[in-house]
Amino acid sequence: MYMKKNLPKKQGIKHFEPHSVLYLTGDANYSRIHLLNGKVFLSSYNLKWFAQKWPSFLRLHKQALVNPAYVHHLSVAPTLQSASYVVMQDQVQLPISRRRVSGIVYHFRQV
User: Fold this and answer.
1) Which of 22, 56, 105, 106 gets the most CB atoms within 10 Å of its CB?
2) Which parts pass through the membrane (predicted)?
């Protein structure tokens, strides 16, 4: 299902298994890849590229893509004035855009 991705980086090419990735954050046209072991790598690919290559990852908003296997907690706001977010396995909170909340909740109810 998942394929190893070879990603160019400054010191050469780094090989990533998707199951070792907690989440990705967007930084302009680059992505920061946050791994289970706590390391962070910068990739020249944007989040859209990763979302297409790893379809099981969830897009929370325009700057975050998460591996749902490592979502520790989902907090849904009762009103639009407060923010919904996910807490990842490493205790990092990532916000969910208002337009994507229903899709994210639906995904986790199906699991």
Assistant:
1) 22
2) none
